[in-house]
Amino acid sequence: MENSMAGESSHSEMNNGGLYIYSQEKLEEGGRWYFSRKEIEENSPSKQDGIDLKKEAYLRKSYCTFLQDLGMRLKVPQVTIATAIIFCHRFFLRQSHAKNDRRTIATVCMFLAGKVEETPRPLKDVILVSYEIIHKKDPEAVQRIKQKEVYEQQKEIILLGERVVLATLGFHFNLLHPYKPLVDAIKKFKVAQNALAQVAWNFVNDGYGKLLILVYIPFFPVSS
Questions:
Q1: Where is the Cyclin-like domain (predicted)?
Q2: Which of 16, 54, 84, 201 is in Cβ range 3.0-4.6 Å of 109 for a Cys bridge?
Q3: Which domains does the chain have, with CATH numbers?
């Protein structure tokens, strides 16, 4: 399975019936961020600014791909990447794509996710790698971002963006990730085929790029 899962942020346990449960506090905190697909689509700030659902879906997929690339280059665990994606999703539930650059917000979310998941990367590294990805078609970008003036400008943007993201998220960092329940389910069912386990893993990762992670709380029923 690609990337490690160190830093799993979900506080959960399995009861005697084999059902994955989360603490009441965890559910109440996380439940503030789960909505029906209809609620998400009808109340979209981006839609109110003239961005249709198809375009918004494209933008969502775009920042998810960007975060996956950024996270892999920074060598952070998959759960940190997933946390950054959720932070980004939550941000754009309340803010419009028309008024916020998705890749800037995504960069902020990766920096923040690293701290939340206790897998931090230096701000300088996050800025340098992000800038290189954003300007990957520009052969001079790698050298340009190393210039003090350019770097300081990007640093100021990211630090300002962090304050905006924190305010938008309301400092709610408790997340319910499906990774640990998935691994425990695979162990319980004694799934020996690596291919099958990888399919399940990929299915979960794909869900982060869509509305699924905003609609469904990740419970995994594990029957005896």
A1: 65-167
A2: 84
A3: 21-215 (1.10.472.10)
